[in-house]
Design goal:
Chain lengths: ~110, ~120
């Protein structure tokens, strides 16, 4: 079983729609959760971080965390063609010298068409 | 956010030669640096974790004698791919974390092509 799983997609949505990206993780001691956006040939760019159960909103992005279900999601409202990218879910354990060591999901390719 | 600079952005080398990639934290002291590798259409896979002044910790399956990591200062870590082969061609990405940071910051990545 993969530690972090995402639907690889591709996910295609029309411009202006809501894109919903999902992620599950297997290690219950995971404490920090991140969504990254990666354009082709570029390094990952942090979109959202979330640490406690519930929703966290930042502009058009909302991250949702449910630790009981070991589930993290990202909603992108009013999707734009420039949102077309691969979205990576990542988790990390808290504390210790390995804090910041990220385990990534395989990524979901999102295409927003005009 | 903090800035991490990775150099070079891309490099082409001949099979059998060695290549060094640098990762620098420009405006903070990076107590921990991480090296990832990403093959085409795959996700990032952690290769090793390095803490300043100590030996790197390699992930299972990563050859420590082939991928030499040095973290001699709080602002610089290097990854040297020794005796490179075409199968080492990949996108190598570093990230760094300072002692006061809850986040890690990524470098721009290095595209290595071994011919």
């Amino acid at each position: 079983q993969k530690e972090v799983e995402q639907n690889s997609g591709p996910l295609s949505v029309p411009e202006g729609a809501i894109a919903s990206l999902n992620c599950t993780y297997s290690d219950r001691v995971s404490q920090s959760f991140f969504w990254y956006r990666q354009y082709s040939g570029k390094s990952p760019e942090l979109i959202m971080s979330i640490y406690s159960n519930g929703d966290k909103e930042d502009g058009r992005f909302t991250a949702q965390l449910n630790k009981a279900s070991q589930y993290v999601s990202l909603l992108i409202r009013d999707s734009q063609p420039s949102d077309s990218a691969t979205y990576l879910c990542a988790v990390t354990l808290a504390g210790g010298t390995s804090y910041g060591k990220l385990t990534f999901g395989q990524g979901t390719i999102l295409t927003v068409h005009p | 956010g903090a800035v991490v600079s990775q150099h070079p952005s891309w490099v082409i080398c001949k099979s059998g030669t060695s290549v060094k990639i640098e990762c620098r934290s420009l405006d903070f002291q990076a107590t921990t640096m991480f090296w990832y590798r990403q093959f085409p259409k795959q996700s990032l896979m952690l290769m090793a974790t390095s803490n300043e002044g100590s030996k790197a910790t390699y992930e299972q399956g990563v050859e420590k004698d082939k991928f030499l990591i040095n973290h001699a200062s709080l602002t610089l870590s290097t990854l040297t791919v020794t005796s490179a082969h075409p199968e080492d061609s990949s996108f190598y990405i570093c990230s760094a974390r300072g002692v006061t940071h809850t986040l890690t910051f990524f470098g721009q990545g290095t595209r290595l092509t071994v011919v």
